[in-house]
Amino acid sequence: MCRHLAYLGPPRALAEIVTDPPHSLYAQSYAPRHQVGDDQPALNADGFGVGWYPPHDRAGPVRYRRAVPIWADANFPGLSHLLRSGAVLAAVRSATPGNSLDESAAAPYALGRWLFSLNGFVQRWESLPGDTGESLSASDLLSMEARTDAALLWVMIARRLTAGTPAADALAEVVGLTAAARPGARLNLLLTDGEAIAAIRRGASLYYRRSTGEVTVASEPTTDDPDWHEVPDQSLLLTTQHTAEIAPL
């Protein structure tokens, strides 16, 4: 299972969000604290990605993705201290056997102003569209960035966003279809447009922390502060810098 986080708030160096906290996403790549069980990997070393929205840039987010462990990228520390943003989505990856291993499989995935990440696993995802009744065209399938369950889910979600479906509804609908067809699927999703974060927890772990003018949503707390709140399983979280709402799926 992967680890991911999303941040909205005052512009900060990417290092302050991704690498500097005591239990940062960087640390979770080699020492996750909430990734337990015999079927859970001890490392998230199959790649990483960071997507951010440059200040005052309305063209959309920028991504930096690699197929190496985050600690093995000699360029990222310098970049992460230089680059600043008030909206970030980042992930470290543990690949599932049989899925793509190149950097195109590393979250976040993108479309327009949207960034998306999956922390989870969908069994037999290749036949998921037919089993859910999802009608995907050849164009939809060719738009997949990688051969992974995450990329397929993103195609299903993105086509709803493009049709005007609100973010929370798009996530909930795809999770509902997927869970019905694959009851054992773990589906922790993050989606942001740089203004709000929509997240779903179905299995695994998910937390959020809000303080004045900022919010962080993450697979596990990045600090030991007591103001982290656990998102209940089978729930949807919709949050901005100033509000947070949780609803059952």
> What radius of gyration results from the CA coordinates?
17 Å
Task: Label the overall shape.
Answer: globular
Give the N-terminus to C-terminus distance in angstroms.
Answer: 22 Å
CATH superfamily: Aminohydrolase, N-terminal nucleophile (Ntn) domain
Name of the CATH first level: Alpha Beta
EC number: 3.5.1.118
Function: Catalyzes the hydrolysis of the gamma-glutamyl amide bond of hercynyl-gamma-L-glutamyl-L-cysteine sulfoxide to produce hercynylcysteine sulfoxide, a step in the biosynthesis pathway of ergothioneine.
Keywords: Glutamine amidotransferase, Hydrolase
Pathway: Amino-acid biosynthesis; ergothioneine biosynthesis
Features:
Ntn_hydrolases_N; alpha+beta; Glutamine Phosphoribosylpyrophosphate, subunit 1, domain 1; seven-stranded antiparallel beta sheet; hydrolase activity, acting on carbon-nitrogen (but not peptide) bonds, in linear amides; 249 residues
Account of the 3D structure:
This is Gamma-glutamyl-hercynylcysteine sulfoxide hydrolase. The protein has helices spanning 14-18, 25-28, 76-82, 128-132, 138-142, 149-162, 167-181; strands at residues 3-13, 48-52, 62-66, 84-92, 109-111, 114-121, 186-192, 197-201, 207-211, 214-218, 228-230, 235-239, 244-248. With 249 residues, it is of the alpha+beta class. The strands form 2 sheets. A 7-stranded antiparallel β-sheet has the order 3-2-4-1-10-9-11. The longest helix has 15 residues, at 167-181. The chain starts with a strand and ends with a strand. 47% of the residues are buried.
